[in-house]
Design goal:
α1 runs antiparallel to α4, α2 crosses α3 and α4 packs across α6. The protein is elongated, with a radius of gyration of 22 Å. It contains eleven helices and eight strands. Bound molecules: magnesium ion. The site of magnesium ion has 7 residues, from loops.
């Protein structure tokens, strides 16, 4: 006769079976991925930005302005990797417009120009097929969930989250653009955990970037899980020998089995546990 487990109300179900109380996720290339040709999309973004500025009566020489804007964006992307600070794309656009003699551009014009620009690339972000099932299952098991995303524009990331219909799963959502600091700065991880009232030891972080997600989690004392199906990047290659994750999965659907195997308190197991002949129980796991 099978031993049935008691039905517990959701939210309180078997906390002792969970190795962590909260799971933090990265967004890009972890829950969603970019499916497009960047060079073609770059042209659409440029055109949308310039068109909206023109509509607002701001008409810099389009080609020269865009070339400078994109050069500065590239320099900004490179610089922020070392600074761990997020100045935001809005700040960059405003500064460049001031250099071009447009010092009094309203916040509304800056926002709408960037919204039009980002709309061109947002359509190419797709949701991973196992994102919803995994997040649903984690919630059903009582985990708290957090999202920490690096990006130059908070509104862009918030739109991507809503477009993928992911918002409802998360107890906390932090973006580097809104926080002013980027992963791997441990502060952004600790800010998320403060919102959840949890110590770092009670959380795991799942992300595709060694330099941002894994290093940052480690710096903050959070268990780090590297997801590798879209991790084949030059940046990751450069870090592969130096930044070691605590665990590796290829896809999101491997997370639940991983957490089960990490659980240190098997529940309702009536079988006798003989003392392990191995020091600290190592090497004893019989295929489980
Ligand atoms: Mg990522």
């Amino acid at each position: 006769m099978p031993i049935s487990e008691p039905n517990l109300p959701s939210g309180t179900n078997q906390p002792e079976k969970r190795p962590f109380q909260a799971i933090l996720f990265d967004l890009g290339n972890t829950l969603i991925y970019f499916d497009g040709e960047w060079e073609a999309i770059q042209g659409e973004r440029d055109a949308a930005l310039i068109q909206r500025l023109h509509q607002a009566g701001i008409s810099p020489d389009g080609k020269a302005f865009l070339s400078q804007f994109n050069d500065q964006m590239e320099a900004y992307y490179a610089e922020r990797e070392f600074e761990f600070i997020e100045h935001t794309t809005a700040y960059l656009l405003r500064s460049l417009l001031a250099e071009w003699g447009y010092a009094q551009v309203s916040e509304e014009v800056i926002r709408s120009a960037l919204a039009d620009m980002y709309a061109m690339s947002q359509a190419y972000w797709k949701t991973e097929a196992d994102a919803h099932p995994t997040l649903q299952a984690l919630r059903a098991q009582g985990y708290q969930l957090g999202l920490i995303s690096n990006g130059g524009d908070d509104a862009d990331i918030q739109t991507l989250i809503d477009q993928a219909e992911l918002r409802t799963y998360f107890d906390v959502i932090l973006t580097s653009a809104a926080q002013g600091i980027r992963k791997p700065n441990p502060r952004i991880f600790l800010n998320a955990l403060e919102r959840l009232s949890l110590p770092p030891s009670q959380a795991a972080m799942v992300g595709d970037s060694l330099g941002a997600d894994i290093l940052g989690a480690r710096n903050a004392g959070v268990f780090s899980i590297w997801i590798t199906r879209r991790s084949d990047t030059a940046a990751n290659l450069a870090h592969e020998d130096t930044i070691q994750p605590d665990a590796v999965v290829e896809s999101l659907s491997e997370l639940l089995p991983l957490f089960e195997s990490l659980s240190t308190h098997p529940k309702n197991d009536d079988r006798a546990h003989p003392p392990s002949p191995f020091p600290e129980g190592r090497g004893k796991n019989s295929g489980n």
